[in-house]
Amino acid sequence: MIKVDIKPNADASWSEPWGSRFPGDRRSGTPETSESSLFLVEYFPLGLTMESPESKVDLRTSLIPSIDFAMIMSGLRKAAQRDASCRLELTISQIEFSTEFTGQEITFSVHIARRDGFHTTDLARMTRANFITFATETCQKCVDLIISHQPRVSENPSFKKYVEIMGLQIS
């Protein structure tokens, strides 16, 4: 199985007082229609490390918003539930995550853009059921980390919508 270590990266969204819409005054002039995209690409950046017995990917210095990463994992999980291979890219960085079916197993990989092209790390091969469990737990871990730092964010309509789309629970 893959060990996923997520920690908050330095950003005010983890620590500023949180209203039901925006942290502090930070974006008080932001129109309602762009709120959900801000959640996806600006709030709650992660330090992310993924490690399996075969390999390790350290993305602690990359900009990876929590909800964006959780949505990627949710999309991969949904593809796996349909026995489909899938490759999804984070919204604001050139980091992609993929699953590929080979027989009865899924290969989970990370693709990082470099000057000379994408570099791929195959993190693990696992059964479809194990991948679905892994992806669901990883998504929930992101949601729980956000709520543990900002409990009031669970009142935010955009946050609730993302959690609903992922089929998760706000605990």
The overall number of domains is 1
> DSSP strand (E) fraction?
25-35%
Number of helices: 4
Q: Major sheet, described briefly?
A: 4 strands, antiparallel
Written account of the structure:
The protein is of the alpha+beta class and 171 residues long. The chain has a single domain, classed as Transcriptional Co-activator pc4, Chain A (Roll). The protein is 32% helix and 30% strand. The protein has four helices and eight strands, in the order βαβββαββββαα. It has helices at 35-41, 66-81, 128-149, 157-166; strands at 3-8, 45-51, 56-58, 64-65, 86-89, 95-102, 105-114, 117-127. Strands 1, 2, 3 and 4 form a four-stranded antiparallel sheet that branches. A hairpin with a 2-residue loop joins β6 (95-102) and β7. It starts with a strand and ends in a 5-residue tail after the last helix. Residues 23-33 have low confidence and may be disordered.
Q: What's the helix and strand layout?
A:
Blueprint: E1 3-8, H1 35-41, E2 45-51, E3 56-58, E4 64-65, H2 66-81, E5 86-89, E6 95-102, E7 105-114, E8 117-127, H3 128-149, H4 157-166
Antiparallel strand pairs: 1-2, 2-3, 2-4, 5-6, 6-7, 7-8
Helix pairs in contact: 2-3, 2-4
Any key phrases for this structure?
alpha+beta, globular, Transcriptional Co-activator pc4, Chain A, 171 residues, 4-stranded antiparallel beta sheet, 4 helices, single chain
